[in-house]
Structure formats: C-alpha cells, structure tokens
From TrEMBL:
Domain Polysaccharide biosynthesis protein CapD-like stretches: 40-337
SUPFAM superfamilies on file: NAD(P)-binding Rossmann-fold domains
UniProt family annotation: Belongs to the polysaccharide synthase family.
Organism in which the protein naturally occurs: Mesorhizobium liriopis
Name the record gives this protein: Polysaccharide biosynthesis protein
Amino acid sequence: MTIPTSPLHAIATGRDGSMFEADIAARAVEVAEAVGGRRILAVGGAGSIGSSTVLQLARRRPDALHIIDQNENGLAELVRQLRSQPQTWSARDFQTLPIDYGSGAMRHFLASQKPYDLVLNFAALKHVRSEKDPFSTLQMFETNLVKQARFMGWLAETGFAGRLFTVSTDKAANPSSMMGASKRVMEHILFNSSVAATLQGPKTSARFANVAFSNGSLLQGFENRFARGEPLAAPLDTRRYFVSLQESGELCALAATIAPDQAVVIPKLNPEDHLVLLHEIAEKFLRRHGFEPAAYTDEASACANVAAERMKGRWPLLLTALDTAGEKPYEEFTTAEETTFEIGLPNLRAVRYAPAERRAIDDAIRLASDMLNARSDEGLDKGHLKQLIAAVEPRFLQTHRDAAANLDQRL
C-alpha cells in the first residue's frame, strides 16, 4: 500500500500546512514578548487544544510554566512530549499538577504562587451528549460556569492583573445544545460578571472549528473504530468547520497573547469553502486506509458485516439521521446580533463582545450553585436547566434543538 504523504487532518481541513502560519509570523515579536520570561498558568492544559497551545507557549521560553489538569495520564504524556524536545523549549519553573481547577487544592496552589502574567483556561465539559440527563448537564454547568467564576475570584485574591484567556466554541453562536449555551454564558462570566470586574487585565476568548482527530472527537472515533474492526458512523447532511491540532494551538496562542480586551477571536472560514460534510470525511478516511465505504442505515447490520465487507475490500459506514438532541446541521462563528472586526491578521478576526445584563449573569452563577448544593433533586430537570441559560441568553429557548434521542443511543 502506498503511504499517504498528506497528514491525516488534511482529509478534514483540506490543508497540508497551517492556515495560521502567516498570522504567527506577523505577530511573532509581540507573542514572544507576551510569553518570554513571563509567568504562565494553563488550566486544562493536557487536553488536545490545551496541550497544543502549551507547546506553542513553551517554545517561546516562559520563566514559569504551570499546567493544571485532572487527567493525570494526559499530563504525563505532555511532560514526555516536552522532555523529548529539550532544544525547542525551556522554563525555569516547570510544574504539572493533577488538580481540579475549582477545588480547594487549586485555591491553595494559587495562594502559594506569585501572580501570573498570563492565565489560560481550557477546562470544560465539551460534549453535546452531556445533555442526555440533568445530572450530566448540571456537572457541565458546574465545570463551565460555577468553577469559572470561582477560579476568577481566586485569581483576584492573588492580585492577578495579567491577561486572562478562556476557550469557547463555535457552538456558542446560536447554541443548539446545552453545551454550546453553557460556553456562551461562560463568555458572559469572563467578560461582564461581577467577578470579571475585579480583574483589570485584558480578557479574551476564541470560538473555532472542530479540531480534526482531537481527543473524543468523531474523527478520532473513526481511528479507534477502524483499529478495533468496527463500523464507522456519521450523520447525514451535517457540515462542520475543521482546524488541525497545530492550528488550534496557534489560534489560542494568538488570542491569548495579542487580541484586544473583550475580543472573541474566530478564524476566517466561510461556509461556501470550508464547511465539510461529516460522512464525506468518513469516506475519505476509509479510502486512505485502502477500503471503499459500504453504506448502511441499520446499526445491527453494519456491526454484523464488518468481516464480510472487509473480505471484499469494503468497510461498513453507518449513515444516520441528524435527530439527536443538541445537534444542528452546520456550525457558525457569529450571530446576526454580533459584530466582527479586524485585528490585523490575515486569517483571523474577532467578535466584539455583546454584554448581557450583569445581574442576570451573576444570578445564573448563583442558581447553578444552589442546584449543586440543594439537598433534593426537586426541580432538577432539563426545563429548569434550560431556563437558567435563557435568563442570560433568552434566544436559547428558540435555538435549542431538543429531541427524544441522544448521542449515547447512536453508534
């Protein structure tokens, strides 16, 4: 078999190299000044996007580089990767800690440190499938909202006056899922909550495309299923934007270090050229591995016929309807009510933050905390959780895509 010369992500992005190479080059001096010799904290830094961003920052020689993540295995692998590249990075003070960023241990750690110059937060529950039950959704609200506010308050206690970046998602624009809506409210907490007012430094975020073959993604699922000899699955008529893992780190590094205050950085991708059908990516993936896709619409048949199809040089591809909660046929980076502006980069622009009422933002944090601390589960249902979001983002009542089926009921 001929070994493909293009990287695997190219079947989704359509690019062999990085879209943001010119952007990094254009602001190389400013990024280096924002990182070199500085104290940096990366929360959730062992995940796909977090670790890719950490690699971008580490090679620009920070004085302190502290990485927080509950995923001990991810932290260990990130350390191995960094230690294997001793000529490309350095940090006088390098630490990795398996800490929950909203826990008491995190507060103690922050109190033990001198204030940071740059803090990046990648910690999130990021799967649309988390709205399958109210308990998973409440956990998502705790991670994405309550702990975000708590963490910002602890930063204020340390005298932090540097730059604060928290990653968002394209799913925050006209959110159809509880996950996307929680990240939209996260943006409000970052920029206009009462705790945000106690932090005087610049605050930025980024909404960007799906990261091709990142941990937990549908495309990584293609790899895992293929390795296990299982059918692939993809929804029909569903389009997504994609960036590579490298591009995700470059975008976040730029957004965190040089974007103006209260800007949400987005890539210059357009629907005509860059929205990609998910089932077509699955077909390309199979052909890259030497198999023709064999379309199935029945899950049991697809699972039962892997061996038979493989003998014919084919592989089952289950094509499903887009009928699960929270999923929509395409993604977008902005809403009709938002405005974008240029930030002096060829392939990136920014959304200007449109504030929600501060009292509503603070009330949402308080209500989520009250639900978490309640002694009974009375009122803990999807309707109440949806109203909590709608108090800050009223349009969510119209944009939310509800359904009886959820992603755990699909292959």
